Amino acid sequence: MKKFSKKKRKSRDFAISEIDEDFQNFKKLYEELKKKYGVTKLIYKAEEKEILIPVTIFSKKLSPLETISKYLKENLNLSNKAIANLLSRSEKTIWQAYNSSKKKHPQRFKIEETKYVIPISKLANRKFSAFESIVSYLKSQFNLSYHEIAVLLNRDDRTIWTLHHRAKTKRGK
Predict the structure, then answer these.
(1) How many C-beta atoms surround the C-beta of residue 78 within 10 A?
(2) Contacts by 169-172 with C-beta closer than 8 Å and gap 24+?
(3) How far, CA to CA in Å, does 142 sit from each of 28, 104, 120?
(4) Which DSSP symbol is given to 48?
């Protein structure tokens, strides 16, 4: 095991205690938001450092990328740069998707409790579109039928089948 000098050890310990303090602040803020807005499900899993997207935010009005950009920007207060990094997209793409979503759906999303959430990391693979990734994840993780996914995402069953089939083809299965 590598030994650290006292100076390095102190700075490393400080970083850990700083994370703990940030986590405590986050927990306090979450409790306040829960009281104020009635948030009933924790969307950000602190122990995994993974942002989860609830499927209840998807609608026919917005594309999946517009929906996700709007949710991350308005509900989680992330910058375009942070969103672009999480989704492996350019800032310009995120900016365009968010601005388009504001025009189509000006109000903030109301988050409803759901057991179906999509980890943001599943949307970062650029080989697949955001929509293909969402459909594939819901199909494989929750073993949902095409119809159940279509109802969750407010889309037609045939669209869901096409997206899943396209993703399978890209994967080589």
Answers:
(1) 19
(2) 170/127, 170/128, 170/132
(3) 32, 30, 16
(4) T
- Can you give the pTM of this predicted structure? 0.70
Which residue(s) pair with 119 in the sheet? 52
pLDDT bin (cut points 50, 70, 90) of residue 65 is very high
Radius of gyration of the chain (CA): 19
What is the band of 173 on the pLDDT scale with cuts at 50, 70, 90?
A: low
DSSP string, 143-165: ---HHHHHHHHT--HHHHHHHHH
Whose CA is closest to 117, among 66, 53, 169? 53
Q: Residue 27: which pLDDT band, with cuts at 50, 70 and 90? A: confident
DSSP notation for 77-146: ---HHHHHHHHT--HHHHHHHHHHHHHH--SPPPPPP-S-EEEGGGG--TTS-HHHHHHHHHHHHH---H
